[in-house]
Known about the structure:
Helix content is 28%, strand content 21%. The protein is α+β, with helices and mostly antiparallel strands and 502 residues long. Strand 17 (435-445) and strand 18 form a beta hairpin. The chain starts with a helix and ends with a helix. It has helices at 5-13, 46-63, 73-86, 93-105, 166-173, 185-193, 196-204, 279-292, 310-317, 349-358, 407-418, 483-488, 492-501; strands at 114-115, 133-138, 141-147, 157-161, 164-165, 211-216, 222-227, 248-250, 259-262, 267-271, 297-301, 328-333, 359-365, 368-373, 395-400, 423-426, 435-445, 452-462, 477-478. It contains 13 helices and 19 strands.
Amino acid sequence: MKMPLIRIFILFLMTVALGCGGNASHKQNNRPTAEADTTAKNLLTVNHMHGDLAVLWGAIKELHPGYGFYTPATQLKQAYQNVYNSLKRPLSESEFIDAVYPFLCQLRCGHTQLKHAASFKPSGDKKVPHLPFHVLVQQHRVWITGHQVQELHAGDEIITMNGIPVSEMIDHGFNLYCGDGYNETFKELFLSEYDGFEDVCNKYFHWQPPYTLNLRTAKGGLKTVKLIANDAKIPAETQKTVDNFAGWTVAGEIENSRLRFQKNKSTAWFQVSPFAYTDTVVYEKAFALIKRKDIRNLVLDLRHNTGGDIRVAIRLLSYLADADYNIVADVKSRFADPASSQFARYFDAGITSGFKLGFKAGAKAGNWHHITVTPEFGQLYGPFKLAKTNHFDGNLIVLIDGATFSSGALFTAALKAQNKNVKFIGRETAGSEEGCNGMTVQRLTLPNSKIVVDFPWMRVVSVAKNASRGRGIMPNYTVNYSPADVLSNKDLDLNKALALLR
């Protein structure tokens, strides 16, 4: 499937991955920084913050597809009012972002995030401390994994930190970044992998070392330790790293070792990265090789697939669906013409132009306009035909986790609904099974602080059957990791897949 150049241009112009937007990529450098910017010249006045918050609230009420979807409008209004009333003194840009996030999280939309103004320059007056350990967060509990101090050991469970119960810290951490629906696996992954737990200490509690930790050891004993600082000179525990692909061969024709074959067996593993235009060629090569080698068992790895171009996801599904298929049931918006909104001047004009070029608002049903797509976009609604060659008809196992999001989750939901033999292993996806907000993710610039809000314009309805409201795609086999598994890089999901195939 080759896209005309105009379509590639549209994809770039809209600055999103068309499907549920790919710019919420869950990477650490997309998060607002915790660096101090508290010098007087950098502080925002109370009036300016109130003005920005009012613009954000007004735009959400008029345009946001998540308004009232998971959280009742009255509850959203109360969350907004709570933040508004709490702004009683000048704050730095970072502090203002931290104050707004608990309200924004109530939308339960993973594509709605806050980013610093383009001109943001953190002050170097106050050094932000780094914790001398890393953690694994699961089910509101926290375990030590890597560390740089002798007092800690991998597998120690933190009960309290500076007198605060860990469960309370996790609750605050869940309000540092927005997620879809009622999902928690992404929030846990964010706290574990992207220094989110450290952000709780710095952004919410504003702690400086020393830190006092009450711990339960791996053997069940209790101990209290005081950690002074991160001393990199002290060696951490060492643990042998597992080679998860011992006995596999890499398909050299596919870049980044994304396709591997198990030696002397009819099993392949294929990593599906976030959907990019060039992947259409990768799929053609990969499934040709899978067919040529007579592979009967395919492990499709969608872990950390944070979305991307939904047209590419459609192409991948052509190799895996049982029959003619769809990937979305509907796309809709709350407005016919975004340029007519009183908030139009706060949005990126280029993205607005791209929206008008690629999408058209059609008939209205209730509060929603059905969205159609133009020839410049391509095809969004099916049914689509299966791949003419190299379609895979064997045993299919899909690995998913708390970073399978956006178009990655839409693809997963579509595969689940349209392949009767597929099995899922891992953890609940970050993206909701019923769909998400996205397609066009706008950039709303708040007038005073110039903080940018990622702001989706449309609601995408998946083709899932009997999806649980606000929950991701659930695995058939749930796999949880221990601190030792994390340290040794052991791939329990892959191991479970191979055990099932055996």
